[in-house]
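## retry 2 of 3
previous attempt timed out at serialization; input unchanged, resubmitting
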Amino acid sequence: MAIAKAERLMNLALCLLGTRRPLSKRELRGSIEAYLEAGSDDSFNRMFERDKDDLRELGLVIETVENIEGDTGYLARRDSNRLPAITLDGEEAAALGLAAKVWQQARLAGAASGALQKLRAAGMPEAEDSYEVHHSALEPRIPVHEAAFEPLMLACRDRRPVVFDYRKANAALSEQRQVEPWTLECWRGHWYLAGWDRDRSAERVFRLSRIAGRVRSRAGEFQAPVPDAVTVRETVESWAGETATRSALIRLRSGCGYPLRARALSSRDLGDGWDELNVPYGHGLDAWLVEFGPDVVVLEPADLRADVVERLRAVAKG
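## retry succeeded, writing output
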């Protein structure tokens, strides 16, 4: 944030917190130097509205009050903007510190670090030395490599429709999708978006790594209601065969495909650098197996082998 804007926001916050009665736009403009320097009323109004929204996003509770003459005034009551006493024990502080370290590769990293610093300044106890010693070598990370993550995260937060090009696992080309984004969730190292697909008039889940190009925001409100609970993980699990009632026999190159090995019902060494695995077979297993490329060969059933071959041919043509 530029120093000039930070100073302007600070001055506006101090004015709103320091007054006992609502201040009109005219009074606020006369009290803050940056507003006095605004070239026109329209320029000042745009600047003030942006600053007011920024302060609210930062957590300041600003009330809008209309007096008997119909004039609008603004103030931030101290009792509405005072945090309660923070009472955290050592274990709770350690848990918060661990959570803040998770977001290292996304926009949330700065917010998490800033929140932790504010809590410590307010009296939150430091994590015990034993925690730091035993956990500094192995720390959790949430990988966020997809460029689509940040715009989709903001769109989910702000309830903004988006448009993006998406390539399905069995398709060579991508197609445009108009989506009302609900939530993002990470499953087995991959990020997924759940939302309402306007073109198909149905709930859909999209894997972020298959989004091509830029995510574009669209004006307007959501057309479909947002559900109280979104089962992203359950949907993806069904694609990956987690709810399987059958099994498939595959050959897997030695030292490869750990996720497949972890789910295998049985495994045996075939020699020559290959193993034979019996894995659960459900809807979507063909798409998952294709991701392992030449390291996997489907032996049976025949319909799964045919689906995998068809997907590989589609990828080769693309």
